[in-house]
């Protein structure tokens, strides 16, 4: 049951991010072009599993994305807000699909399950 709730939570974050993005009339072309950019952080695994997991997790936690949302709001920057909505949507999409934060043991070992 907990696993299902985490997938639903990811869906909710993904949907809310897309809604806020659309309400601000940002470009959907940019949304789809940038949606997978946080996955570039997987290149950290070229160095080693520990560094790869750390870098991947840094780009796949809500903390940085939410900080950028706050910066976008405080600075009235539509660019920052748009980027943060895409980033948040990416994380929500990953959670919805069952991809979680990585453990250094293996790329497939996540906080959600073994993918």
Detailed description of the structure:
- The chain crosses the membrane at residues 5-22, 28-47, 59-87.
- Keywords: Membrane, Transmembrane, Transmembrane helix.
- It comes from Siminovitchia sediminis.
- This protein is mainly alpha-helical.
- It has one domain (2-110).
- The protein has 5 helices and 2 strands.
- It has helices at residues 2-23, 28-34, 49-59, 62-74, 78-97; strands spanning 102-103, 106-110.
- The protein has a two-stranded antiparallel sheet.
- Strand 1 and strand 2 form a beta hairpin.
- Helix 1 runs antiparallel to helix 5 (78-97) and helix 4 (62-74) runs antiparallel to helix 5 (78-97).
- The radius of gyration is 15 Å and the shape is globular.
- The protein starts with a helix and ends in a 5-residue tail after the last strand.
In brief:
It holds the Pfam family DUF4260. It comes from Siminovitchia sediminis. With 115 residues, this protein is mainly α.
Q: Which H/E pattern describes the elements?
A: HHHHHEE
Biggest sheet layout: 2 strands, antiparallel
Count of separate DSSP helical elements: 5
Helix/strand/pairing class, anyone? mainly alpha
Number of domains: 1
Segments where pLDDT lies below 50 for 5+ residues?
Answer: none
> How would you state the average pLDDT, rounded?
93
SSE layout and pairing:
Layout lengths: L1 H22 L4 H7 L14 H11 L2 H13 L3 H20 L4 E2 L2 E5 L5
Antiparallel strand pairs: 1-2
């Amino acid at each position: 049951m907990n696993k299902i709730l985490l997938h639903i939570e990811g869906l909710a974050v993904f949907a809310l991010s897309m809604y806020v993005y659309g309400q601000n009339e940002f470009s959907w072309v940019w949304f789809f072009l940038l949606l997978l950019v946080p996955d570039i952080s997987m290149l950290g695994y070229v160095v080693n599993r520990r560094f790869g997991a750390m870098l991947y997790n840094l780009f796949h936690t809500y903390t940085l994305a939410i900080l950028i949302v706050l910066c976008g709001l405080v600075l009235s920057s539509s660019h920052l807000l748009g980027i943060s909505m895409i980033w948040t949507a990416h994380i929500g999409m990953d959670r919805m699909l069952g991809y979680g934060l990585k453990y250094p043991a293996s790329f497939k070992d996540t906080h959600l399950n073994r993918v």
